[in-house]
Amino acid sequence: MQLGTRWTAGEQPPAAVPQELHEQLAAVERDLPPGTPAPRWTLTWLEGRPVAELDTGVIVTIDRTGAVVVRHDDEDEFA
Hints:
The chain is an alpha+beta fold.
């Protein structure tokens, strides 16, 4: 079992966050509106794959093929 972790956008991701996600996490953070309070990321694990979700609903994960995917929580993952 792997426990999740939380951190604030703009901070260095914790060691538990796979390096493969770091570039896309930073890209999402660059698109945040300036001057707003920094949202927080939550890292969880689903079927052994990392899922980082920002409070805004943006999700960064690794799909079954190993590709990093960015989507929004209202998008159908299997569409």
